[in-house]
Write a structure and sequence with these properties.
With 413 residues, this protein is an alpha+beta fold. The protein has helices spanning 3-23, 29-40, 42-53, 63-75, 136-151, 175-184, 232-244, 285-310, 336-348, 362-366, 396-410; strands spanning 79-83, 89-93, 101-107, 121-123, 126-128, 159-165, 191-195, 202-206, 208-217, 221-222, 254-263, 269-270, 273-282, 317-326, 329-330, 354-357, 371-374, 379-381, 389-391. The chain folds into two domains: 3-206 and 328-410, Zn peptidases (Aminopeptidase, 3-Layer(aba) Sandwich), CATH 3.40.630.10; 210-326, Alpha-Beta Plaits, CATH 3.30.70.
């Protein structure tokens, strides 16, 4: 037998052993009752999902939804329920030992601004509303997991900390989870699961990102009377043109995007400021660093070109501010937390699916704390769009899966 085949045989044998050991959780009578209960109350989970979604939670203004989840955590009998200084809602379900302390989280915030109509509509098996899948589904799932544990009277070996966290989307920059790991729960968390979005995929690779706001500044003036001044908008255009020609690898997947631009005061004025927000991502830290260096050079070249073109005594300046940074991370296929998901899939008759994404799990992954992000079940479409939808077909499987993965990690007494 070749060395490669021998290694593959040993690895597959080890993974099978782990999966078999964890799959025994699903055969526990109390766990079976919890799984059956989850399926039975799925209509109530859907109603919870709708109710959650109709409580506005725009970026940096998640307070109303947080207050609702604080009350729900109290009603479910979780201990030490609180809202921390960053705005995360936390409730603890203590275990019988210090075997593990798992955070089961879903994020409160959406990408939609304050004035968005958040009313959810329903047509047959399809719900429509901003954020209905991302992440109202995840929030509803963690509540039902807590309900099912209570209903089946399951005592766990390890502790489960339920968290409805802030700041996952956009310029929130994972601020909620960063605060959990750096301050609120520092040193306590041994495992982390984020329930984010829909389906039954497991995200075990954290896509890193660097986000910048770039602001070109100048004296500004009348478009005719002050003609000849260097223009922040022209410099911005030069920079965008350079960025648009970046060549990036397909593997590891690496991307860039100019997401927002703004500047100027009128059609007949040379602008005094112009800014853009830029997002760059990669599955590889090295590839992201290389792209970042290209970006920085493009900005400085654009500034220089605009100033040199007009040869005016008054010059432009530029500020390049980092407004978001998500670290790269990964959990390999043989990692116990990934195998906990594989075992849950096997118990539910699901085919395991893995992928990469930029989620709250990036933070613990970067700290070498076992972490994955899982979907909440159902079928989601048009995430981050006003017509976002959620199809409820077999959606209970997402909640059952979340329960099993959780119990595979913390253990059942």
């Amino acid at each position: 037998m070749s060395k490669i085949l021998f290694f593959t045989f040993i690895l597959m044998s080890a993974l099978t052993t782990i999966a078999v050991a964890q799959s025994s959780t699903a055969s526990n009578p109390q766990v079976r009752r919890a799984l059956d209960y989850i399926k039975t109350i799925e209509p109530e989970t859907i109603n919870e999902q709708i109710k959650t979604c109709e409580i506005p939670a725009p970026p940096f203004k998640e307070e109303k939804r947080a207050a609702y989840y604080q009350q729900r955590f109290i009603e479910l009998g979780l201990k030490n329920v609180r809202i921390d200084k960053e705005g995360n809602v936390i409730g603890e379900r203590p275990g019988e030992s210090s075997a593990a302390t798992l955070v089961l989280a879903a994020h409160l915030d959406t990408v939609f601004p304050e004035d968005t109509d958040v009313k959810v509509t329903r047509e047959g098996n399809v719900l429509k509303g901003p954020g209905i899948g991302d992440d109202c589904r995840g929030l509803a799932v963690i509540l039902t997991v807590a309900r099912a544990l209570n209903e089946a009277k399951i005592t766990t070996k390890g502790t489960i900390i339920f968290v409805a966290n802030v700041g996952e989307e956009g310029l929130g920059d994972l601020r909620g989870v960063k605060y959990l790991f750096n301050t609120e729960l520092k040193g306590r968390i041994t495992h982390f699961i984020s329930v984010d979005g829909t389906g039954t995929r497991t995200i075990n690779t954290g896509v890193g990102s660097n986000r910048y706001r770039v602001t070109f500044k100048g004296p500004g003036g009348h478009s005719y009377g002050a003609f000849g001044l260097p223009s922040p908008i022209h410099a911005l255009g030069r920079a965008i043109e350079k960025i648009s020609r970046f060549e990036v690898p397909k593997t590891p997947k690496t991307t860039f995007n100019v997401g927002r631009i703004e500047g100027g005061t009128s059609v007949n004025s040379v602008a005094h400021t112009a800014w853009m927000e830029v997002d760059m991502r990669s599955e590889s830290g090295a590839a992201l660093a290389k792209l970042d260096a290209q970006f920085q050079q493009a900005i400085q070249d654009s500034l220089k070109e605009e100033n040199e073109f007009w040869k005016h005594e008054k010059k432009l300046t530029v500020d390049v501010n980092l407004v978001g940074k998500r670290p790269v991370g990964e959990q390999t296929g043989e990692a116990p937390i990934v195998q906990a998901a594989v075992a849950a899939d096997a118990a539910l008759g699901l085919k395991s699916q893995f992928g990469a994404g930029s989620t709250d799990s990036n933070i613990p992954m970067s700290l070498n704390i076992p972490a994955i992000t899982i979907g909440g079940g159902g079928i989601g479409r048009n995430a981050h769009a006003l017509d976002e939808s959620f199809e409820i077909t077999n959606s209970h499987l997402g909640t059952q899966r979340a329960l099993l993965i959780t119990l595979n990690i913390v253990g059942v007494k």
